[in-house]
């Protein structure tokens, strides 16, 4: 890949196999192609590219197959998986490589990287120990941008577990879609899942049904959680007041709040996360 990029330094890397009019695409690796302008190619180069296109396809990335295509099994068993979606709007190859190395050091629960394009990366995390990923990245993103001369947009996705009736790919594709729509608006920085979800439900071209359905089912599976969400919403996320409304001991309520955070990463004392959960149960309580 490095040699090809040196030959065509102005070419773009994309995750779209079908090039637009006036371009040709060279396969680099699984789900990644190099876009070249036809008018800038010699006849010899066009013939070589045509030959490359006829070669056997690159072996697909098993994580891409599992998470995006919904095929096969996960390459590694991760009971509580969280994806961190990263878009790099300004970087060099050296800066990107150094940043990826830093991210793996910064997040000890890192398990794999999935590269979707030359600008888009997905970090796959094991959240069995509930690491506060969003807080860590918010504290360090400015320093990383400065040190590696890059510009980042990051979505810290939801914590998901494999459901009994299907795979995680539908919710992952929905997360990916809302993040792509978000970065098209030019946003930079680190964002929690709930922030983009609440924005995404207002976008007519986004279908967040897989996320809504999965989280709603999780809420229903937890004892008293729907009532807890409503009580916290009514009392501005003040645990003591919500406990009084529910006739629960404060410690018992706090235990249930902590259990939900361990399961999903959603913090019910965080008003944005709470708003997401309240939106999910609103249809059941009105």
Query: What pattern of helices and strands is seen along the backbone?
Result: HEEEHHEHEEHEHEHHHHHH
What is the oligomer described by this structure? single chain
Q: Main beta sheet, described?
A: 5 strands, mixed
Q: Which percent range describes the beta-strand content? A: 15-25%
Number of helical segments with 4 or more residues:
12
- Fraction of residues in helices? 40-55%
Rg, please? Answer: 22 Å
Show unreliable segments. 54-59
The domain tally reads 3
Mean pLDDT: 86
Structural class: alpha+beta
The dominant shape is elongated
Distance between the termini: 56 Å
Number of strands: 8
* Strand order in the largest sheet: 5-6-4-7-8
CATH class descriptor of the largest domain = Alpha Beta
Protein name: Helix-turn-helix domain-containing protein
InterPro entries: CdaR-like_regulators, Homeodomain-like_sf, PucR_C-HTH_dom, PucR_C-HTH_sf
Organism: Streptococcus parasanguinis
Domain PucR C-terminal helix-turn-helix: 230-275
């Amino acid at each position: 890949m490095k040699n090809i990029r040196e030959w065509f330094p102005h070419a773009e890397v994309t995750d779209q196999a079908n090039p637009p009019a006036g371009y040709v695409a060279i396969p680099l690796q699984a789900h990644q192609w190099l876009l070249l302008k036809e008018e800038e190619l010699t006849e010899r180069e066009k013939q070589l590219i045509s030959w490359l296109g006829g070669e056997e396809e690159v072996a697909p990335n098993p994580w891409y197959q599992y998470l995006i295509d919904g095929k096969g099994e996960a390459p590694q068993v991760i009971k509580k998986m969280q994806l961190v979606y990263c878009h790099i709007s300004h970087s060099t190859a050296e800066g990107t490589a150094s940043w990826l190395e830093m991210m793996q050091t910064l997040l000890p629960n890192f398990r794999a990287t999935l590269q979707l394009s030359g600008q888009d990366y997905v970090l796959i995390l094991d959240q069995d120990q509930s690491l506060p990923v969003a807080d860590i990245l918010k504290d360090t993103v400015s320093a990383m941008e400065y040190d590696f001369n890059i510009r980042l947009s990051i979505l810290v996705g939801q914590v998901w577990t494999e459901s009994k009736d299907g795979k995680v790919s539908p919710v992952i594709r929905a997360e990916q879609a809302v993040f792509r729509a978000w970065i098209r608006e030019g946003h930079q920085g680190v964002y929690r899942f709930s922030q983009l979800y609440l924005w995404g439900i207002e976008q007519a071209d986004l279908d967040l049904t897989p996320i809504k359905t999965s989280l709603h089912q999780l809420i229903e599976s937890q004892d008293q959680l729907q009532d807890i969400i409503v009580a916290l919403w009514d009392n501005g996320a003040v645990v003591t007041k919500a406990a009084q409304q529910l006739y629960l001991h404060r410690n018992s309520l706090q235990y249930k709040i902590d259990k939900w955070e361990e399961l999903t990463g959603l913090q019910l004392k965080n008003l944005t996360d709470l708003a997401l959960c309240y939106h999910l149960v609103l249809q059941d309580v009105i």
